[in-house]
Specification:
With 212 residues, the protein is an alpha/beta fold. It is built from 4 helices and 9 strands; from the N terminus they run βββαβαβαββαββ. It has a 7-stranded mixed β-sheet with strand order 4-1-5-6-7-9-8, sandwiched between helices. It has a two-stranded antiparallel ribbon with strand order 2-3.
């Protein structure tokens, strides 16, 4: 069973390129967690999976040792959003809530939402933690907190109210960013499900951090 599980959308390449491309973010976060001693599992391409398929895979990796399950929002594109909450996800909110309810019924794991949309779409009250920005360090601190209940791991986090429920926003800008020439993404990890001869992204630089 994994301590941390990341659900990622994956992104469809342009029509003239017959491939599907992974986003780097979830694997960078998973690698940082592996370095910190936590076991991880990345389930990619959830935009192409049915609810039953997602649950079938999750059931093999979620358990009493799972601290959190996260949604990486960067490539979660909802083609036909009806509500503002729908814009957070790849499908309607009700379907995502079915996944979240399965997680809650089968573990004590918290629900985390990060990635590019996290600063702008803090709409769902079923999310426990919104992690904003480059989370290489902040996600490790959050995981340490969930494991130890030591509040010193959370720097300048704030509670916000969504539909009567308090959720926590963690601003990664309050944590030091790692030096890009001193980090590694472990694509070889057996729980990352990378296929032989698959093309993978390379992180050469990062964009502007100040999203406020």
């Amino acid at each position: 069973m994994a301590n941390c599980i990341i659900l990622s959308g994956g992104t469809q390449a342009p029509p003239f390129v017959s491939r599907i491309q992974r986003s780097l973010g979830p694997y960078r976060i998973a690698s940082a967690l592996e370095d910190a001693g936590y076991s991880t599992f990345v389930l990619d391409f959830i935009i192409h999976l049915s609810y039953d398929e997602i649950i079938s895979v999750l059931s093999k990796h979620i358990g009493e040792d799972t601290l959190w399950v996260g949604f990486s929002s960067t490539f979660l594109w909802n083609k036909d959003p009806v509500t503002e909450t729908d814009r957070m996800y790849y499908t309607n909110t009700e379907d995502v809530h079915k996944v979240i309810n399965f997680i809650r019924q089968n573990s004590k794991a918290k629900i985390v939402y990060g990635g590019a949309k996290a600063p702008f779409y803090q709409k769902d009250s079923l999310i426990d933690y919104y992690v904003v920005g480059y989370a290489d360090n902040s996600i490790v601190n959050l995981t340490n907190y969930l494991k130890t209940n030591d509040s010193s791991y959370l720097v300048d986090s704030k509670a916000i109210n969504i539909d009567g429920n308090d959720v926590v926003v963690i601003d990664s800008n309050n944590y030091p960013e790692p030096k890009l020439d001193n980090i590694t993404t472990y694509w070889w990890n057996k729980n990352f499900n990378v296929l032989p001869n698959e093309g993978l992204p390379i992180e050469l630089a990062r964009g502007y951090r100040d999203w406020e």
